[in-house]
Amino acid sequence: MFKARADRPLWHRSFRELAIAGLALVVLSGCVVKETRPLPKLEAVQAKQQIADAELLDVAVQAFDANIPAALKDDEEALDKKRIYPDVRKAESRLLAARLKTTLETSGQWGAVRVVPEGVRFVDVLITGKILESTGGRLELEIRATDAVGRIWIDDKIYAGEADLGSYKTDAAIRARDPFKNVYVQIANDLLQARERLSAAERQDVREVALLRFANDLDPRSFGGYLVNDPDGMTRVSRLPAKDDPALMRIEKIRDRDAVVIDTLDGYNEQFSEGLFDSYAGYRRTSREAIEKEDKARAQATTRTVLGAAAVLASIFVSSQCGSGDYNCQRIEDAVRYGGGVGGVAAVMSGIKKFEDAKTAAQEVKELARSFENEAGSQVVEVEGRSLKLVGTAEEQYREWRRLLAAIYAEETGPPSPAPAKSPPGS
Predict the structure, then answer these.
(1) How many CB atoms are closer than 10 A to CB 199?
(2) What's the pLDDT score for residue 268?
(3) Is residue 143 classed exposed, middle or buried when 0-12, 13-18 and 19+ CB atoms within 10 A define those classes?
(4) Spatial separation of the C-alpha atoms in residues 109 and 113, rounded to whole Å
(5) Nearest residue to 127 (alpha-carbon basis) of 105, 137, 136
(6) How big is the chain by its Cα radius of gyration, in Å?
(7) In this predicted model, which residue has the larger pLDDT, 404 or 13?
(8) In 3-state terms, what secondary structure has residue 40?
(9) What pLDDT does 180 receive?
(10) What does DSSP assign to residue 65?
């Protein structure tokens, strides 16, 4: 039994320092628990009373810009360093837009809320977004929202937030609340504030302008005279067609058909989002854990390097201080050296395992995303007894539909009517 004495032999002190270094390395190689405070759970402001139909604005959320740097699109290693996985980002462009749509829908503040392809333009309120960062631990979006008049509601504002770790605890928890729900709620509440700044008449004007812009796109000669641009660049109604105007009634029917096509495409997106839900949730959870471990490893890099080097150098260059017959001393010395090495190896292997888990989950998302892009393709639209088949991606389908829509309208209305005479200024 050793006694604490000031004149303890040198080998005792060297051996003690080696033991301390080895023990510290083992401890630092293990799991370091970081205390995190639970995030406040924000909720979208709910409608307290029914909104009049004339003021109930429809919202279109375009699939977000995946924001994959063009200069890096073929450099997988560089993209990995930025934690950008192109196939996952492409899937997220729809998934995250769908999360925002759900938040808006459940607030009861809006009319129809849809995730739409890029070609959809003539809507009451249009939201576009760009993914700046998306990992299991952090989400950052750049959002822009405008109305049919041309009024900017949200001007390329950045919304960011950390993941609510409570959502990652169980599968049921992540289904009950998205880890980044707070981000979507902030966007929804900002949209509501922008709408509340409009008078009832201004909201009705937004709806009328959206309809007339749709009509003008199909038949500019008949409907071009109803809208004007003011000095501020806003589109205003100069006059309204009669409610029983046959041309307007045809336009409204055509617009209803257009809404059916958009609803169908939105339905595809919902199926896509639901099909990817579990895989994407698993990807987010495991990637957050892997990123957290990576960040901790980087923060501890200097300490680990110093202690690891000390332990390795000690085990290699410090000669044994035990007597040739002191087997107990030799066993303890070997155990300390071995323990330092095992601790370092265990930490490295644990990190590799987590990254492999994240890669596996990411690969599953990639494969499902590719499957959707390949198979999401077709719908049949019935128009005046004719069946029109639309194929391709959502964007391709909608472009083809708009082309067919213009042809159908031309068939129904005959040759375009003369352009209406413009009213003189100030009349």
Answers:
(1) 10
(2) 84
(3) buried
(4) 10
(5) 105
(6) 32
(7) 404
(8) coil
(9) 96
(10) B
* Side-chain-side CA neighbours of residue 68 (13 Å): 19
In this structure, what token pair is assigned to residue 156?
């390329």
DSSP symbols for 346-381: HHHHHHHHHHHHHHHHHHHHHHHHHHHHHH---EEE
From 351, 350, 357, select the one nearest 286 (Cα to Cα).
357
pTM beyond 0.85: the answer is no
Judging by beta carbons within 10 Å of its beta carbon (0-12, 13-18, 19+), is residue 140 exposed, middle or buried? Answer: middle
DSSP string, 219-249: -HHHHGGGEEE-TTS-EEES----TT-HHHH
Report the phi/psi class of residue 414: left, alpha or beta, with left for phi > 0 and alpha for psi in -120 to 50.
Answer: left
Residue with tokens 């990637």: 287
- Other residues' Cβ atoms within 10 Å of the Cβ of residue 363: 15
Q: How far apart are CA 257 and CA 260, in angstroms?
A: 5
Could you write out the DSSP letters of every residue in 81-142? HTT--HHHHHHHHHHHHHHHHHHHHHHT-SS-EEEE-TT---SSEEEEEEEEEE-SSEEEEE
Residue 164 vs residues 10, 139, 359, 366: alpha-carbon distances, Å: 53, 11, 22, 24
Helix (H, G, I), strand (E, B) or coil at 173: helix
407 is written with which tokens?
A: 């042809």
Amino acid 54 reads A
Cβ atoms within 10 A of the Cβ of 244, count?
7
Phi, then psi, of 13 in degrees rounded to 5: -70, -45
| Type of residue at 27 | V
Strand-strand pairing, 113-116 and 59-62: parallel
**Quick check: helix, strand or coil at residue 6?**
coil
State how far the Cα of 410 lies from the Cα of 401, in Å rounded to an integer: 14
Other beta carbons within 10 angstroms of residue 155's beta carbon come to 9
| Long-range Cβ contact pairs of 357-360 (< 8 A, separation 24 or more) | 357/286, 357/289, 357/290, 358/136, 358/283, 358/286, 358/287, 358/289, 358/290, 360/286
Residue 372 has pLDDT above 80, yes or no: no
CA 162, CA 366: separation in Å to the nearest integer? 24
Residues 168 and 322: their CA atoms lie apart, in Å, by 52
User: Per-residue pLDDT tens for 83-115?
Assistant: 888 888 888 999 999 999 999 999 999 999 999
